[in-house]
């Protein structure tokens, strides 16, 4: 018997285990895969000597995360933070640049520079408190943080996908690209909330990549867990919640749908249906590419960007994302790209590079999106095709099999609608708690939602320990 069983070893499962083990409890982690890490795995997907991130590659919320700061992750993992957080390519020869330096960004946006500054400057100045408020459950925020939530909400309401608020395509495109990370309609308030939060991170701590691949984050947490005596059971799938009955606290890094399947024998039918009604969003189709040289961007400044957005104008991004939500494949889709080897040359042989890129597709799609992604990159980097050594494609359908938490290829753990931001997966000050005594959800399907920040696991573990041992907080 152990005090705590954690099911799943993604960033939230590992964070939950660290939080419980640091509180002096005995912990075991049960992982269905033979490899720990969930969305933080890295592998040689294309050819030997080239390291790729299987899922997450750039981590906008990692340096902002209160949990990662609490465990001093930056002293164990080397983050490389580009000065150019992200670039948005509207068409060949026209792009918007979001530097970590807010003033430099505003200066490059012409007549929209003042509006960009108005949008982000107060939040960036107060970023530590903003992230403490946003990386929590909405009803669990401290009273002093509600003003920060209101400030983010007001700004999100103003920009709504960038259209209308900005007069120039560069600023509007930058904002639409941020909102499109939601995998929902970029003009929706929920998407704007996510976009504004990501924009604050871009100008505060930046959007870093990790030396040695994203697996380095998981490895650092695993090293600590081993030092704390945590037991790992890999290659073990929990299909029935009763298999964890020997632990008074159970933390599940799984989706609400998986929980309903695991606990159906213990739950009222109405409650089971409620968990199964949790909505999931579109999927992603990704390519990993090995290159004989760096991407030959037409605009050399793009090479400094840690993340590159494609998709045209703000209006075009809104159209393409709506098409995906409707189950169709747009001709000019929104695409995200990173070339990690620019900042971490250790991932490839000398002079060689890797590219990580994905696009949004209808849920469960089996379509190979390699051609449209390569064609789009080539339009902004003539000669790109000639540098390609090899390509590995992962469809949304394949992602759903790779990780059961990616339902239909949804890497966000659930649709980012306003309802599912406020109530993720249920409304309350402790949305991680389930109807089963001692059982808590702690995945990206719970507050505060997707991203590599560990906060869902950390907060769920704190809530579970407080409930069990009748303590106010840890």
UniProtKB/TrEMBL annotation:
Signal sequence bounds: none
Domain Amine oxidase, chain residue ranges per copy: 13-454
GO molecular function terms attached to this record: oxidoreductase activity
Assembly description: Interacts with COX5B; this interaction may contribute to localize PYROXD2 to the inner face of the inner mitochondrial membrane.
Task of the protein: Probable oxidoreductase that may play a role as regulator of mitochondrial function.
This protein's name: Pyridine nucleotide-disulfide oxidoreductase domain-containing protein 2
Species of origin: Candidatus Lumbricidiphila eiseniae
Highest classification ranks of the organism: Bacteria, Bacillati, Actinomycetota, Actinomycetes, Micrococcales
């Amino acid at each position: 018997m152990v005090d705590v069983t954690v099911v799943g070893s993604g960033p939230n499962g590992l964070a939950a285990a660290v939080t419980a083990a640091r509180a002096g409890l005995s912990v075991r982690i049960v992982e269905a895969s033979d490899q720990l890490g969930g969305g933080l795995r890295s592998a040689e997907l294309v050819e030997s000597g080239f390291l790729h991130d299987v899922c997450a590659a750039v981590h906008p919320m990692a340096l902002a995360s209160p949990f990662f700061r609490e465990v001093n992750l930056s002293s164990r993992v080397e983050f490389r933070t580009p000065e150019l957080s992200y670039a948005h390519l509207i068409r060949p020869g026209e792009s918007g640049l979001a530097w970590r330096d807010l003033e430099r960004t505003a200066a490059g946006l012409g007549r929209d520079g003042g509006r960009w500054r108005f949008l982000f400057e107060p939040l960036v100045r107060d970023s530590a408190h903003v992230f403490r408020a946003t990386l929590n459950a909405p009803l669990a925020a401290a009273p002093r943080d509600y003003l920060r939530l209101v400030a983010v909400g007001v700004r999100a309401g103003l920009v709504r996908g960038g259209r209308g608020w900005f007069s120039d395509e560069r600023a509007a495109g930058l904002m639409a690209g941020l909102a499109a990370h939601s995998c929902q309609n970029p003009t929706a308030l929920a998407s704007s909330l996510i976009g504004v939060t990501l924009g604050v991170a871009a100008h505060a701590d930046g959007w870093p990549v990790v030396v040695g691949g994203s697996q380095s984050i998981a490895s650092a947490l695993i090293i600590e867990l081993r030092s704390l005596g945590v037991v790992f059971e890999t290659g073990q799938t929990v299909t029935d919640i009763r298999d964890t009955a020997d632990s008074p606290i159970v933390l599940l890094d799984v989706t609400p749908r998986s929980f309903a399947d695991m606990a159906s024998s213990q739950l009222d039918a109405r409650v089971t249906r409620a968990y199964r009604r949790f909505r999931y969003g579109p999927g992603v189709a990704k390519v990993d590419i090995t290159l004989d040289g760096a991407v030959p961007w037409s605009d050399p400044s793009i090479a400094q960007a840690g993340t590159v957005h494609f998709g045209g104008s703000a209006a075009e991004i809104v159209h393409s994302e709506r098409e995906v939500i409707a189950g169709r494949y747009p001709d000019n889709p929104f695409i995200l790209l990173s070339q990690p080897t620019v900042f971490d040359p250790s991932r490839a042989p000398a002079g060689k590079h890797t590219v990580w890129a994905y696009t949004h597709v209808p849920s469960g799609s089996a379509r190979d999106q390699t051609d449209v992604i390569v064609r789009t990159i080539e339009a902004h980097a003539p000669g790109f095709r000639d540098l390609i050594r090899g390509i590995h494609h992962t469809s949304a359908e394949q992602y759903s099999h790779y990780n059961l938490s990616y339902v239909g290829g949804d890497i966000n753990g659930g649709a980012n609608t306003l309802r599912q931001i406020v109530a993720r997966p249920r409304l309350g000050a402790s949305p991680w708690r389930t109807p089963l005594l001692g059982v808590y959800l702690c995945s990206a399907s719970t507050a505060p939602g997707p991203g590599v920040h560990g906060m869902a696991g950390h907060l769920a573990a704190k809530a579970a320990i407080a409930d069990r041992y009748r303590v106010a907080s840890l």
